[in-house]
Amino acid sequence: MAATTAAPPPSKSTPTKLNPKTVRKAVNALLKWRNSQTQNPDDLLDSSDEFTYLVLTLKKIPPKGRVNAFKIPLPNPLLSEFTQFCLIYDDGPKSKLTKDQIDKRIKTHNLPITKTLKLSKLKSDYKSFEAKRKLMESYDAFLADKQIVPLLPRLLGKQFFKKKRMIPVPVDLQQKNWKEQVDRVIESAMLFLSTGTCSVVRVARTSMSAEQIVENVVAAVDGIVEIVPRNWGGVRSFHLKLLESLALPVYQAVPDETLLKIEGVKGSEKEVVKNEKVGKKKGRISEVRYMDRNVGEVLDEDELSDGVIVDKEKRKSEDAKLKKAKRSKNAAE
């Protein structure tokens, strides 16, 4: 089960390389583009709120895949007051909390938890795929008593973990600071570092002011940089985008010449090899692409909502291999 880990506070030893002016220009451009998509001003007022996404591209694939989500604190809450949480709790014989006690605390602290679900009921009433799907679609987010977190992958099924944003966030119900814990969830961006070089995280909503979005983006970048390997040294780029917009760059690392690996070239010849084509068996240049011009092209609605970017070229390659295998099987039959 994926637990969440709070991001460490920005370190004074890691100065930011992000220019807030660049972020502000990108935010204004995205908001202007969004407004232009609605011809009738009245329709814009009725349009649903939309997330703003920060796309992280690393220079190298992380050495080890991580399932746990990082909580990145944001100055302006990402989730609205209308967010509906479902809390899954332990109702076993060893549990120290009853349903009445839980409901009373929720009411006392005015927590946005609209449903409390017993672990026993989850086991008995949500066995089928359809029941789990309906549960997942009924709430905006899920919380779970941290003591039962290891049991949830088997009980909730793959669809909850495929859509990473729906993975229940662990909370410690034995502590009295329920409101503080829930507020931290509401006020944080959830970062799931993917097994590839690209990850995406929700950082703001279009219903916020432009300045609030800028503040959230800057805070998210600072928090993410403290998490990734080598900090700024491991970051290739940051892009900002809406669901259907282009991805606008807000930070681009300067190409590192040491990452350009040249094979089959000796001594002073390395200095001459720039734009020349390498002929036949003289060697090969392994290129490192730094300008992420196609970031927007590798994003779709499902991938954005899940919080993880999938490499579409890899997916196409796998699909092609599968189709080829099916054709071979049919021909053999």
Automatic annotation (TrEMBL):
One of its GO terms (cellular component) is ribosome. Pfam families: Ribosomal_L1. Keywords: Ribonucleoprotein, Ribosomal protein. The lineage of its organism: Eukaryota, Viridiplantae, Streptophyta, Embryophyta, Tracheophyta. This is Putative ribosomal protein L1. It comes from the Eukaryota. GO terms for molecular function: RNA binding. Residues 1-21, 314-333 are annotated as: Disordered. It comes from Rosa chinensis (China rose). Residues 323-333 have a biased composition (Basic residues).
